[in-house]
Amino acid sequence: MHPFTYTRASDVPEAIAAGRRGGRYIAGGTTLVDLMREGVERPETVVDISGLPLRDVVATERGGLRIGALVTMAEAAAHPKVRALFPVVSEALELSASAQLRNMASIGGNIMQRTRCPYFRDPTAACNKRDPGAGCAARGGFNRGHAILGASDSCVATHCSDVAVAFAALEATVRLLGPDGRRQVPIAEFLLRPKTSPDREHDIGDGELITAIELPALPRPLQSGYLKVRDRQSYEFALTSAAVALHVHGGVIRTAKVAAGGVGTVPWKLPAVEEHLVGERPSQSLWATAAAKSADGASPLQHNRFKVELLKRTVERQLRIVGGTE
């Protein structure tokens, strides 16, 4: 491991100052420490923020929810407000990683985690995300687990977070605090597609700190859930996944929120699926025709063509689970 300096921030201003000087934030350490061991990340300074007061889960005035950045995955999944208002978030968290990692990893760290692409994590392989301009070994290599949506000539790595898919479906907001004050960024804008700069993955500046994730108030009753399809049933990243939230009133779908994971360079919102659902009555045929739109624009690679059909089936199945039929 490359030598580094460790410092522990006693409060938020101290953390921001250290981050502005080039320090890398660490809370649970479940991602950054691995990357440092592998020689992929080589920060000069690591700033421990685990003691900061960012651990609250608070209902907002209009019926939304604010989850502090340092709430652990396990704490968020088990929190009564999360389970009652947004079960899709609890389910996504419970299907992530292992129990030991969920007890350590923070919500803020989860959405900041970097890809599990094996070429990114191999310092001997060409990777534009790790070394801009080096090329992308995945495009001509074994790419079964890579993206079919949102890829570029520079990068085809998938975003690996499960809960970020739920956040994308619900249209969550990332709350930031930095040297220039507070910002709120929709998660769809916070997580950046690779385009020509895959090494820049997040809309976050030097010294900026994630303070919370805010889930908006949505019409009630709201049925929601998360489905993850993977090669094995534990401690595995998604081949495909689907986060679905539906508000059905008077037998008609009034609000639909749908996103997919395991198939995109970021959690992939599915507006065409949502638009097809709104104003319609739940039925088996509706779920099938809506889900057929989930792979619109897909560009599969040599080894992941199966993801196109798997994505459609995953979305259809989760629509049936959440929405049922008349």
Structural topology:
Layout: E1 5-8, H1 12-20, E2 24-26, H2 32-37, E3 45-48, E4 57-59, E5 65-68, H3 73-78, H4 80-85, H5 87-94, H6 99-104, H7 107-112, H8 137-140, H9 163-170, E6 173-178, E7 181-186, H10 187-190, E8 209-215, E9 223-229, E10 240-249, E11 252-261, E12 268-269, H11 271-277, H12 284-291, H13 306-323
Number of domains: 3
Strand arrangement across the biggest beta sheet? 4-5-8-6-7
CATH topology of the largest domain: Uridine Diphospho-n-acetylenolpyruvylglucosamine Reductase, domain 3
Class from helix and strand fractions: alpha+beta
Assigned CATH architecture of the largest domain: 2-Layer Sandwich
Classified by CATH, the class of the largest domain is Alpha Beta
Radius of gyration: 19 Å
Distance between the ends: 58 Å
Report helical residue fraction: 25-40%
Count of individual beta strands: 12
Low-confidence stretches: none
| Main β sheet profile | 5 strands, antiparallel
Helix-strand pattern: EHEHEEEHHHHHHHEEHEEEEEHHH
Average residue pLDDT = 96
What is the helix tally? 13
Strand portion, in percent?
Answer: 15-25%
GO molecular function, one term: FAD binding
Domain FAD-binding PCMH-type: 1-220
Pfam families: CO_deh_flav_C, FAD_binding_5
Organism: Streptomyces coryli
